[in-house]
Backbone:
């Protein structure tokens, strides 16, 4: 181990993402800032894009922002920023103080990006909708309160609120939209969220004190995600199944394995519920969004984690030989389970949609079975073929499943 006494920058690693390097990073940053800034000079155009010819429903807009922040909260509660390169831990004097500083700075960067993105989108939507000062105040209060809540919980180790917290925040956004709460009431709601954040900040241990094993496990997850993006193989990041308890597989069948795969991934039910609530509120807040596209994409994202069980079997010949089941039986059993989940998700969406008083046309509901077929097609693709120098095979396999979803959504949107 080399004792350098101070935190040493690894050679070749760019500072601040290369924004001040004068290279492509600088160009992309200037271009992106210019595009975002000039959007405020085309508010009439943005009003037509977001609201069409109707006036903005600001309670629904604020409720949708609360739901979006609930998604961001759920993402940060996964604490993907807690990692360190094993090489640094082994060869550099990566002391506890250095670990705390690096992990804390990474949390601050991710959290700041979320808050800045939420603030920018809120400002653009409220400005395009012609909101008054009271709407601006309510929106800022909501974003600030949720930002404090996210930071107070993400900087601690796992809390009991990690599972139910984002869902409760999404339900709060649903109440704001469905009850058409005024800006003043929304400010009181934001005050309540802020009080909850102050209470949650006192529990758990700081993630900056994570040990070596936790940091290396986080690095492994990040490395797998990076490899999946680099080699255009999204199947690598399909979620693994958690232990399912006393479920017996001494006589394994395709149906039992499908059920075990679902039980091992029930942690994604909360995300599916968040998507259903978000779709129903988005139909009112942004009426120009096509129903088929909104429902189809949300259903696909909600169901694709539960296709992980079939994906693991499909890409593991040894397990398929051990199971001694035909490909058709695997598709049918897992497809039936996904169809049941899609039906349950549609029922939740219909209930929330009824509460919002919104209308989803029939072609919009047809996007749910389309999403089920797309998930089945995506997880049963062949392994990537890297011998094709032109990349046609890789591109075809990469879009497998998504192609059916996109084409089907286009057809349904035209029919609708």
Residues:
């Amino acid at each position: 181990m080399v004792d350098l006494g101070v935190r040493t920058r690894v050679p070749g690693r760019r500072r601040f993402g290369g924004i001040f390097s004068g290279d492509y990073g600088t160009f992309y940053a200037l271009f992106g800032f210019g595009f975002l800034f000039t959007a405020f000079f085309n508010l009439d155009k943005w009003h037509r894009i977001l609201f069409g010819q109707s006036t903005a429903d600001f309670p629904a807009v604020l409720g949708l922002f609360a739901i979006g922040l609930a998604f961001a909260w759920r993402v940060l509660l996964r604490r993907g920023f807690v990692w360190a390169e094993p090489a640094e831990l082994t060869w550099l004097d990566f002391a506890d103080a250095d670990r705390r500083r690096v992990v804390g700075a990474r949390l601050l960067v991710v959290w700041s990006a979320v808050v800045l993105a939420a603030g920018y989108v809120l400002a653009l939507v409220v400005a395009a909708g012609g909101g008054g000062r009271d709407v601006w105040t309510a929106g800022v209060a909501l974003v600030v309160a949720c930002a404090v809540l996210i930071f107070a919980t993400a900087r601690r180790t796992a809390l009991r609120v990690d599972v139910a917290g984002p869902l409760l925040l999404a339900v709060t956004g649903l109440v704001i939209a469905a009850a058409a709460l005024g800006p003043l009431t929304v400010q009181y709601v934001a005050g309540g969220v802020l009080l909850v954040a102050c209470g949650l900040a006192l529990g758990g241990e700081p993630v900056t004190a994570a040990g070596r094993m936790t940091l290396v496990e986080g690095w492994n997850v990040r490395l797998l995600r990076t490899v999946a993006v680099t080699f255009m193989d999204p199947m690598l990041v399909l979620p693994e199944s958690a232990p399912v308890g006393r479920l017996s597989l001494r006589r394994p069948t395709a149906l039992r394995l499908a059920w075990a795969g679902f039980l091992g991934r029930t942690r994604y039910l909360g995300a599916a519920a968040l998507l259903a609530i978000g779709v129903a509120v988005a139909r009112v807040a942004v009426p120009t969004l096509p129903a088929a596209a909104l429902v189809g994409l949300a259903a696909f994202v909600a169901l694709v984690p539960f296709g992980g069980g079939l994906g693991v079997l499909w890409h593991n010949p040894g397990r398929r030989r051990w199971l001694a089941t035909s490909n058709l039986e695997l598709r049918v059993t897992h497809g039936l389970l996904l169809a049941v989940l899609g039906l349950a998700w549609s029922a939740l969406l219909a209930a929330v949609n009824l509460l919002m008083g919104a209308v989803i046309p029939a072609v919009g509901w047809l996007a749910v079975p389309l999403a089920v077929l797309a998930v089945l097609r995506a997880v049963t693709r062949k392994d990537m073929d890297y011998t094709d120098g032109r990349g046609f095979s890789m591109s075809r396999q990469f879009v497998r499943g998504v192609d059916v979803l996109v084409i089907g959504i286009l057809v349904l949107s035209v029919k609708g």
Remarks:
- The chain is about 70% helix and 0% strand.
- The chain has three domains: 12-41, 51-230, 234-416.
- The two ends are 66 Å apart (CA to CA).
- The CA atoms of residues 69 and 160 lie 19 Å apart.
